Amino acid sequence: MDTRRRVFIETIPASIEGHVRLKGWVYRLRVLGKTTFVILRDCSGEAQCVAATESLRDLHLKVEDTVEIYGPVRAEPRARTGCEVAIAEIRVLHRAGHNLPFQSAADLRSVGLETQIQYRPLALRNEAVGDIFRVQAALLESFREALSRRHFTEIITSKIVGGGTEGGSNLFQIAYFDRVAYLAQSPQFYKEHGVAGFERVYETGHVYRAEPHASSRHLTEYYSLDVEFGFIDGPEDVIQLERELLTDIFQDLNREWAPVLGRYRQDALPSMLDVPCWEFEACLEILRAEFGRTDLSDDLDPEAERQLCERARRETGVSAVFVLGFPVSARPFYTAPRGAAGAAASFDLLFQGMEITTGGQRLHRREDLEAALRGRGIDPSNFESHLAIFDLGMPPHGGFAIGLERLTCQVLNLPNIRQAVLYPRDRYKLTP
Description:
By secondary structure, the chain is an alpha+beta fold. The chain has twelve helices and 19 strands.
């Protein structure tokens, strides 16, 4: 083999009449009488490589083998990239097994999701599956960039905590030397600490919910996009920031990933700037009047989320709505009240029939937090390390959290949240 450096497949068109060294997986293999076509795939794309069939016979090449190829590049209009590589030398770096459950170039719609997860690396070589996670990575990058432009600082906080932020019934308990500790169900307290130091913060990281779900929309470990910022006048400021943030993210995806998005959805991702905000009680009335729903009182179920999004789509053209003013009794103790009738300054964002965000304004005075805890029968001393932060000067603040996997599902119209997770964790799944 020539000693020149390996190049990525995407650069091949710039090397017409030159020689290239490629490394990747045999994605497809077509053996004809005198000519063999090897479609090679690496992280940047696919290349058509060609050799005389007789010259490859002793290699016993097969799909999914990892190989190194060296040869000249020549124009070939029939190839996907407009050129191909004539194989002068080929070396097998590693041979794949003979009885793989599927081939990465196959139509994986006929392969069960559990099989795809069990053999995830093989599935990721498939363009359709791999694109889900490439879009997800782009979404995460855009989230960071949009917040950085708005003076937010990214923070990284512990996922091993001494207690819960939203109650103790859905905590994963772990042994922590001679004490009991828990996996964090939210970075909420740390975000508020960040506000006291930086004013505007965000965090991306896993959170854990020990909830015995086994549905197409729930996980016990999911990736949360958390935002918190100070000096707000009310929850409307938080809602407006999310409108702008999601609009920026969706514009980036539409611009950079339009061909991929077009395989998953009919329309481009919408602007979220005009997404309406409806009061919770008004939503209950809509559900009663239009859908005969009388079974809801302090929260919305998945069917109600779909019904409200459909109503919003008819009115605004966008299947999304912010629902503000849930009962304060159904929200965490740190939630600020909204008026004097028992409503909370807390909202959900419903997007294309699913809740993807919970957020709102928080209590920012220590005495109010202590009163809220006592009102729920909780001794404030149990939260002293958190409450002490409020003695340092805490501005009125609020924020929200977006579930990355749910947002990915809604962006790409995926029916099951496990399609948007490399290795999902739920009530029953702990491997791979």
